[in-house]
Amino acid sequence: MCISIETDRLILRPWGKNDALPFAEMSQDKEVMRYFPTLLSKYESDALIQRIQSYIDQQGWGFWAIELKESGEFIGFTGLHHQPDKFEFSPCTEIGWRLKCSAWGKGFAFEAATASLNFGFNSLNLKEIVAFTAQLNEPSEKLMLRLGMHKIQNFEHPDIEEKSPLKMHVCYAITATEFNQLRQSNK
């Protein structure tokens, strides 16, 4: 069973065929992809959607497509993914997000990520969720802090070339207890 989550302004949902073109455009946007090693071709972005949706089909959750409730427009993705052994802090469940530029600065990433964390902690009963990004990616790091996450370590991403300025990453985490206490204090 695939899960969809609604927030005040967003729907986090399984991917549909109409998401392929806007996701491919996003994956070719140099600003969106600034903190990733390469832009993705249409073929690569379609393959990524298939891998993400296959994971959702198996687990019932994953990196959901984000749709604006008001217009139905696809604006990116957010959600959770289990990392069994790739990193020194694995096994872990990560939260991730990527939104198109026109969706930046409107609180959508925070709203979608908060809903994903809530699902992870209060539906999946996870104990901890991590997030990581290139050290250069200050906007993502600021979102992690705004979500109540705390820095646990710097690390070298194993899939990024040694000489790349994106090699060094930062990892943040939040526990279920921390998340639920933060939600209670913000009510």
Automatic annotation (TrEMBL):
Gene Ontology MF term list: acyltransferase activity, transferring groups other than amino-acyl groups
Keywords, in A-Z order: Transferase
Pfam families for the chain: Acetyltransf_3 (PF13302)
Protein name in UniProt: GNAT family N-acetyltransferase
Keyword Mitochondrion in record: no
PROSITE patterns (alphabetical): GNAT
InterPro entries from the UniProt entry: Acyl_CoA_acyltransferase, GNAT_dom, N-acetyltransferase
Residues in N-acetyltransferase domain copies: 21-177
Highest taxon in the source lineage: Bacteria
